[in-house]
Amino acid sequence: MKNTRNKTTQLNHMKTFKPHQINQIKRYIRAYYKGSFFVENTGPFVFDFGKVSQSSEYDHAWKKFIVQINKSLKADTHFDLNLCD
User: Fold this and answer.
1) What is the C-alpha to C-alpha distance for residues 5 and 30, in angstroms, rounded to an integer?
2) What integer pLDDT is reported at residue 85 of this predicted model?
3) Which pLDDT tens digit goes with each residue over 41-73?
4) pLDDT at position 16, please?
5) Which residue in 14, 74, 79, 81 could disulfide with 38, CB within 3.0 to 4.6 Å?
6) How far is CA 67 from CA 22, 52, 85, in A?
7) Which strands, in side-by-side order, build the sheet including 43-48?
8) Degrees (nearest 5) of the Cα angle 76, 82, 85?
9) DSSP-H helix ranges across 33-77
């Protein structure tokens, strides 16, 4: 008998993080590159092209949170070309 899980349930499931789990959020974004996640006591966030999208509905504190994650992702993505020889 085949496993007949509901695919819409799987698609609607979002990974949930606590606000202080920035490294785990970055790892999740790097792994999936496009998708969404949920931060407890805040709400859903969307990322695309490896960067968290900003929406006008976020307040100033959460925009700072998004900027912090995106800056950290950008800093982590550089690599040394000499290592590729």
Assistant:
1) 27
2) 47
3) 888 899 998 899 877 677 777 888 888 899 988
4) 93
5) 14
6) 12, 8, 34
7) 15-17, 35-39, 43-48, 51-52
8) 120
9) 60-76
